[in-house]
Amino acid sequence: MKVLVVGNGGREHAIIKTLLKSDKIDKIYALSGNGGIASDATIVNIDVKDVIKVASWAKENAIDFAVVAPDDPLVLGAVDLLEEKGIPCFGPNKKAAIIEGSKIFSKNLMKKYNIPTAKYETFSNMESALKYLDTQEMPIVIKADGLALGKGVIIAETLDSAKEAVRSMMQDKVFGASGSNIVIEEFLTGPEVSVLSFTDGKTLIPMVSSMDHKRALDNDKGLNTGGMGTVAPNPYYTEEIAKECMETIFIPTMEAMNKEGRTFKGCLYFGLMLTPKGPKVIEYNCRFGDPETQVVLPLLKTDLFEIFKAVAEERLSSTNVEFYDKSACCVIMASKGYPEKYDKGFEIKFNGDKENIFVAGAKLDNGKLLTNGGRVLGVTAIADDLKTAIEKAYKKVETVWFDNAFYRKDIGQRALKANGEK
Ligand code: AMP
Ligand code: GLY
User: Fold this and answer.
1) Which of 47, 75, 236, 292 has its CA 20 to 30 A from that of 69?
2) Are strands 327-335 and 375-383 parallel, antiparallel or unpaired?
C-alpha cells in the first residue's frame, strides 16, 4: 500500500508516525511535508493548495490511498479530485468541507437543526453590521466568514474595538475575501473542549477529548496562536457531558449534513464551550486539529489506517475504535517572537529519542535540520496520569535544543486544577 498524506505540519507528522505503526502500509509520501517529516516519509514538493497538481501526482505515482489533512486543500476540493481519479481518500469532499469553510454556513446549519451554539447575526453590509453593534452588549465576537489561517475571530471588549474589527474585516479586508461576509455573535463563557471524531456519515465515533492552549504566554496571556500545547483527555469533559454532546451536537450535526446533501466523511472536529447553559459549539473544523492530534493519536490503540479505510468504505459501524486509558501532554516549542516576528534557520538537535516528537516548522539543509517556522515542533509524552504526562513532556523538552527556543511552562496546569490537583 502506497499512502499519500497531504499537509506539512505537526499534525501531519503525528498522522504519519501513527500510520507507520500499521503493517498494511509499505510506503508513505508527505506532500509537501517538512524537514522533520522527511525522516519518516518521502517528501513530495508540491504546494498543498495546488489541488489539481496534487491529484495528478497521486494518479501518476499509483497512490492507493490518500489522507488530506489541512483545511485549505479540503475546502478547495482535493478529495473530489483524488476520488475522480479513482483514489480512495480520508477527508471530506468540497461540499462537506464547507462546514469549516464558511462560518455563515455552519451557523445557519446549527440554527436550522437546533444544535446549541452562540446567538448570532450574519452581515454582508458594513453599515448594517455597525448599526447592529450599537444594540448589543459587550464583549462581543466578530468572525470572518471564510478561512483566515485561524485568525479570523476577534473578541471585542468595547463598542469601539468591535466597530474597528468590523471595519478591518469588511472595509480594509485584512483577511481578504474571507471577511466580505461576517458573523457577529454572543460572547460565551466556560471551559473549552476539543472533540475530534471519526465519521463516515452513518456512524460517528468521538476520539478522546483534549484541551488546547491558544495564547502565546503562561497563564493564558499574550496573543492568540495556532496552539502552544495540548492535553488529553480534557478533565472538564465528563462522561455525562460526553453523552449530552453526542445526543445534542454530534449525531445531530452528522444527520444535518446528510439532510443537506453534504454527507461528511473524515475527521469532524467539534470546538465546544461548556457554558452554564450546557455545551455549545464554538466552531466546527473539517479536519484533525493541530496540536490536538499530537495528543489524541498517540493514545489511539486501534490501527489508524484500518479506521481511515473503514471511513472511506462507509463501514465504521463494524470497526472497533479504542484508546488507551492514559493521559498525554504536548508542549509546542516555538521560535522566540512567535506569533509575531521571529527568526528562522537555527539548527535543531535531539539528545534523546524522537518518539512522539512531531515537527511542524523545519527544513533540511545539507543534512542539518533547521528551524523554518514560528511553531517548530511538538513534544508529546504519555503516562498513566496527567501529572506524570506533563512532567515527562517537560523532561523530554530538555532533550531538544535550538537557539531562540520558546515554550510555555504551564501546559496542562489548567487541566490539573480542574482535576483538583496542582
Ligand atoms: P475559532 O477560531 O472559532 O476557534 O475561535 C478562536 C477562539 O475564540 C476560540 O477558541 C474561543 O476561545 C474564542 N471564541 C470564539 N467564539 C467565541 C464566543 N462566541 N464566545 C467566546 N469565545 C469565543
Ligand atoms: N487547534 C485548533 C485547530 O486546529 O483549529
Assistant:
1) 236
2) antiparallel
For 102-250, where are the alpha helices, taking DSSP H only?
A: 103-112, 126-134, 159-170, 239-245
- Candidates 270, 142, 287, 289; CA nearest to 227 is 289
Q: Which ligand is nearest to the CA of 295?
A: 2
According to DSSP, the residues that pair with 32 across neighbouring strands are: 7
Residue whose C-alpha cell reads 509575531 in the numeric block: 340
Tally of CB atoms within 10 A around 343: 11
Distance of CA 298 to the CA centre of its chain: 15
Rounded to whole angstroms, the Cα distance separating 101 from 372 reads 27
| Cβ 394 under 6 angstroms from ligand 1 | no
Q: For 60-103, write each residue's pLDDT tens digit.
A: 999 999 999 999 999 999 999 999 999 999 999 999 999 999 99
Q: Which H, E and C letters describe 183-194, residue by residue?
A: EEEECCCCCEEE
**What Cα–Cα distance (Å) separates residue 266 from each residue in 56, 94, 217, 254?**
22, 12, 33, 11
Give CA separation, 210 vs 106, 295, 302, 375, in Å.
22, 8, 18, 19
Measured in whole angstroms, the distance separating CA 6 from the mean position of its chain's CA atoms is 14
> Environment class of residue 2 by beta-carbon count within 10 Å: exposed (0-12), middle (13-18) or buried (19+)?
middle
State if residue 233 touches ligand 2 by the CB under 6 angstroms criterion. no
* pLDDT at 149 > cutoff 90: no
The answer to whether residues 371 and 362 touch, using CB atoms and an 8 Å cutoff, is yes
Ligand 1 centre and the CA of 105: distance in Å? 17
* Residue with CA closest to ligand 2 atom 2: 289
The gap between the terminal CA atoms of the chain, to the nearest Å, is 47
Tens digit of pLDDT for each residue in 324-336? Answer: 999 999 999 999 9
Q: Residue 173 phi/psi, 5° resolution?
A: 55, 45
Taking the mean position of all CA atoms in its chain, how far away is CA 228? 12
